[in-house]
Write a structure and sequence with these properties.
alpha/beta
Length: about 425
């Protein structure tokens, strides 16, 4: 009995020790599992928007003077490596009916496979038009294009195919603003598709964390006149996960130039002081447009987030904004606006999708000097403009179109400053 009891006791002790060891191992594994899970927590739109660690920019990969020539996957990967080196982590695209959108998503997926640390997310745009848009028939702004349904379906398909990349869906781009005479629609059309996408989320046919918005001019979001402030717009404000608004002091230097022109009390300023003062007023102009939207949106839904889906400044123009016009276009002013807007929005917790990453010559293909071709912070052949000169060291090993990344003006600030024009006087 004693011997038997001793053996039983030994077995019991061994079992207890083994149990303790196994529990400890299990606890360690569980803790490790929790640690890994925390470390690789999925990033959502809620994490990205308003977070200065996730700098955003508008992206188009077109390098030729026609969108018939679509960028290749390798060309897009080349661009994305450049943007990643500039610490850009979120890009905005504009439509899904051309191959570029799918190419961008494929390129990001491949880069993530090549490098586990590569991080890039997408605000995917679905283009929305009115009936007869871009045809030889009169646009009908009270009916929508049949193409819209196809565009939304494709956006949904891509969002489900790339849930780790696509974090935001934007229904339309400046699709409600009335100066977009070729294609604008009424707010009820945007509302219809936003509600459709929100319902897909409720039905688990889209990721619950995917945020839905519409990206439009500040006027379209109730920031201008009463004609935009309809019941449908109020419903849209409530329906979107956040408001994405656009502001362009650059364009207003021609269309609404009171803030831009040199006032009499600055007549004695030096040339560069006049330019800097005008750029300060430009940033205040953008802030004011943001705040007018904020005031309207908060009157409907006080908790609704508001971010900037587009703002930018062209570096060249031979038209309204050039040396024969408002004299707004040069790299010095572009850099001034870019840095000021980044500083303000980062401080205030506002995401700012700056327009845009690269120059796109297709936008005004008949006029190479047209302002629409020159909103990029980097030229088609890979020269970084003044706004990014201080970041160019991070791009030394990269190329675009076979060219090493270099500074414009051969890095000579003296040469650059010779291109700066003073705004007109009142």
């Amino acid at each position: 009995m004693r011997i038997s009891s001793h053996i039983s006791l030994s077995k019991i002790l061994k079992s207890i020790v083994l149990g303790v060891v196994l529990c400890a191992q299990f606890s360690c594994k569980s803790a490790h599992s929790r640690e890994v899970k925390t470390k690789y927590k999925e990033v959502t739109a809620k994490d990205i928007l308003g977070n200065p660690k996730y700098s955003a920019i508008c992206y188009g990969g077109y390098r030729q003077n026609s969108r018939d020539i679509q960028p290749t996957t390798e060309e897009v990967k080349e661009d994305l490596r450049i943007l990643s080196a500039l610490n850009i982590k979120v890009i905005r695209t504009y439509n899904v009916h051309l191959a570029e959108a799918s190419t961008v998503l494929k390129a990001i997926q491949e880069l993530k496979k090549e490098d586990a640390n590569f991080e890039m997310y997408v605000m995917l745009g679905a283009w929305i038009d009115c009936k007869n848009a871009w045809t030889n028939q009169e646009p009908n702004h009270f009916e929508e294009s049949e193409r819209n349904e196809v565009e939304i379906k494709e956006a949904v398909r891509l969002a489900n195919q790339y849930p780790d990349i696509i974090k935001i869906l934007a229904v339309g781009n400046e699709a409600m603003v009335k100066w977009a005479t070729s294609y604008f629609v009424q707010a009820n059309v945007i509302l219809k598709w936003v509600n459709h996408l929100q319902n897909l989320k409720k039905e688990n046919k889209l990721d619950q964390n995917l945020w839905i918005t519409s990206s439009d001019d500040f006027a379209s979001w109730g920031g201008l006149d009463e004609s935009y402030k309809t019941k449908d717009l109020e419903a849209l404000v409530n329906a979107v996960d956040y408001v994405s608004m656009h502001t362009y002091p650059y364009h207003n230097s021609h269309y609404n130039p009171n803030f831009w022109k040199v006032p009499a009390n600055e007549a004695s300023f030096s040339e560069i002081e006049k330019v800097n003062a005008a750029m300060n007023r430009s940033v205040e102009f953008a802030k004011n447009q943001y705040n007018t939207v904020k005031n309207y949106v908060r009157s409907i839904n006080p908790s609704k987030p508001i971010h900037i889906g587009e703002t930018g400044w062209a570096s060249n123009s031979d038209g309204f904004y050039g040396n024969e016009g408002s004299k707004a276009s040069d790299e010095y002013k572009q850099a001034s606006y870019y840095k000021a807007m980044r500083n303000w929005t980062d401080k205030e917790g506002i995401s700012c999708f700056f327009f845009e990453a690269f120059d796109e010559p297709w936008k005004d293909s008949g006029n190479p000097k047209g302002s629409e071709n020159h909103f990029g912070l980097i030229t088609v052949d890979g020269k970084v403009k003044f706004a990014l000169w201080e970041n160019s060291f991070s791009l030394k090993s990269l190329k675009r179109n076979g060219n090493s990344i270099v500074k414009t003006f051969n890095g000579s600030e003296e040469l650059l400053m010779k291109t700066v024009q003073i705004p007109p006087s009142h």
